Amino acid sequence: MRVFKFGGASVKDAEGVKNLAQIVKQYHEPLVVVISAMGKTTNAMERIVEAYLEKDSEELKSQLNDLELYHKGICAELFEVKACDGVDQLLTQLRQRLQIEPSLNYDFEYDQIVPFGELLSTTIVSAYLNHIMQHNKWVDIRKVLKTDDCYRSAGVNWELTQQFMLDTFKENTHTLYVTQGFIGSTENNLTTTLGREGSDYTGAIIAYALNANDLSIWKDVAGVLNADPRWYPNATKIDELSYWEAIELTYYGAQVIHPKTLKPLQNKGIPLLVNSFIEPDNEGTVIQTSEQKGELQPIYVLKRDQVLLSMSPKDFSFIIEESLSDIFQVFSKHRIKLNMMQTSALNFSVCVDDSKRISAAIDELSEQFDVRYNENMELLTIRHYNDSSIQKMMKGKVVVDSQVSRKTARYVLQASDWNF
Predict the structure, then answer these.
(1) Residue 378 reports pLDDT greater than 80
(2) CA-based angle 382:383:388, to the nearest 5?
(3) How far apart are CA 102 and CA 117, in angstroms?
(4) pLDDT at residue 202 greater than cutoff 90
């Protein structure tokens, strides 16, 4: 059994769906294909959630019409018809769900609405594969991937999930399954999500449960690059990484792989292949159990839209374990991930993603600490740095804070243009 995961960019239009079909056609062993929402549909679904909760009926109507036109337009190109029964049914279900009075729990409402993006994309892809005689079975992943009720960041019930997946994805010759990434459900069958960009994680969960030969993630890049080419045009492909190194990179914010993806694969020694759906015949990057030999080239990870928070006790007492415990409890309560932290006798600083939750956390922390913060920051991590890599990246930059260890240099910078 092999597991493939295709992201939204790979199925953003009819040509992308046809390209996916051509890639899948080359493989004859049992295969589970995990697919994200098409293109930027998740962003569109989030706008629908906002309009729904704000009870903005005109905006909601407009967003729903755009969603329908987009997906039916792809259907029309694939099937030469304007309607697609499965798509119509899902859109009807979505509209019915949006007629229910919303609760006060944003995360819950998000998880009941946004996953329609994945359900729409897999319905279309599965129907097209059957249309061209690539027979497959569409699987509602919510029936087999069971989680807790931590909406928008659900934890996996591994025992139930493995049992259901083994019963569902059976290894029959030339068997092809199509299912969704990113979503699951509770024991009470309430839909949950695994966190933004969680489709990679879904692929890893399936691979783990089925003891798959490997997991292949198909992206619009050649493999794992040493930087995001959208801001660093000189990025180059890395042929091989160890699990250890890849986990370090995801921790620092590298977006090519979802942070939770690697652990279940590493537990069973399942290789992760990162390939290009644009050039599928080219070798990508393999991540597996290995010892990195020689020096790796510098790897650059840039996180934008950061906030630098600094906290000091109001009575000038030391920052000690009790104070840190109080601070971490506040961040945990507001579900704020710490991207970098640094402590001194009277000061504790963290770099975090800018979000709606920051203000509430600052208000709570201010009851006990003097809190200062800088918005519009960037966090640059240079893994396997050398002098020339630091000089190149720091040219013309304003450094607000820094942290340097044996292999990794990290800089909090004032946001500015990157020119190379």
Answers:
(1) yes
(2) 55
(3) 19
(4) yes
pLDDT tens-digit map of 254-275: 877 877 899 999 999 999 999 9
Report CA 101 to chain centroid distance, whole Å: 29
Domain ranges for the chain: 2-213, 299-414
Token digits for 210?
């089925």
| Whole-prediction pTM | 0.86
The yes-or-no verdict on residue 197 having pLDDT over 80 is no
How much of the chain, in percent, has pLDDT values that exceed 70?
A: 98
Q: Which two tokens stand for residue 298?
A: 């510098």
Q: Which residue, among 156, 128, 27, has the nearest Cα to 71 in the 3D structure? A: 128
Measured distance CA(163)–CA(40) in Å, rounded: 33
Do 35 and 23 touch, CB atoms closer than 8 A?
no
In CATH, what is the architecture of 2-213? 3-Layer(aba) Sandwich (3.40)
CA dihedral 83, 94, 7, 335 (to 10 degrees): 170
Homologous superfamily (CATH) of 299-414 is VC0802-like (3.30.2130.10)
CA torsion, ordered 201, 202, 204, 206, to nearest 10 deg: 170
Determine the Cα–Cα distance for residues 219 and 204; give it in Å rounded to an integer. Answer: 16
Q: How far apart are CA 108 and CA 154, in angstroms?
A: 11
